[in-house]
Amino acid sequence: MAISDQLIERIHQTKHNSIHGFFDKIKTKKWVKDLYETLFLPQDDNTEDQLKRNFEALQETLSDLINTVTGDKIITEKQVDRFFEALPQLYDQLVLDAKSILEFDPAADSLEEVYLAYPGFFATYVYRISHQLWSQEVKILPRVISEYAHSKTGIDIHPGATIGKSFFIDHGTGIVIGETTVIGNNVKIYQGVTLGALNVSKEKAHQKRHPNIEDDVIIYSGATILGGETTIGRESIIGGNVWITQDVPANSLVYHKSEIKIKDNSSLPESLTFVI
């Protein structure tokens, strides 16, 4: 069955009238991967000259991506310069993140292992570079970059979130961190944690919707913390599977108590018997 000319025309007009350019997602993913490898992984030629050539290529690719949106070479050049001027600070932050994983995860034996094998660190890396572009008000590209990490790791960190130093993600699958979340220093988060909004109406798009997590907080797996006015006080421990929508004072222990029964399975209650 032939596709109608009317549908083709509608699709063409929608793409043509887009207020932002469409990124080459394959090129975007490759740029993220190449930057990561240049910063952290050994390569065939580890000379300083090769590193300089790598960074020149990375600058050129980022320029192409940003120019897709701006359509202005002068603005693009300023944006690229600003990102790479911030890169030394981003690198230092990421090294602290990796060291935090090495210090607190008993399964981690070296920084090299963290760089090679830890999805939580990769997701943090993607967050930090996408957040830098977000802070520069580069349109769309930070979201495309952050969704790349989401698809690879199952960790969803909005580039608009604010995250302090020595951030630790263990395992990580299912973590969601919303746009207006503010996280302090030395925070540790485990798999399945949601830092989300109480209300997702469009009218609240420019309001503080997500919680504040102060310094040295630990949040264990499955915890859900919601609301822009919710603050978890410093040095608190949030246990697994809790649901929090109100402030937690500093130095608190919050936990969910459930009842588990263990008994002999040789004589199950009638209500539990079944036939397949």
From TrEMBL:
It comes from Chryseobacterium flavum. The keyword NAD does not apply. One of its GO terms (biological process) is amino acid biosynthetic process. GO terms for molecular function: acyltransferase activity. CDD domains: LbH_SAT (cd03354). It comes from the Bacteria. Keywords: Acyltransferase, Amino-acid biosynthesis, Transferase. This is Serine acetyltransferase. NCBIfam families: EPS_EpsC. The keyword Cytoplasm does not apply.
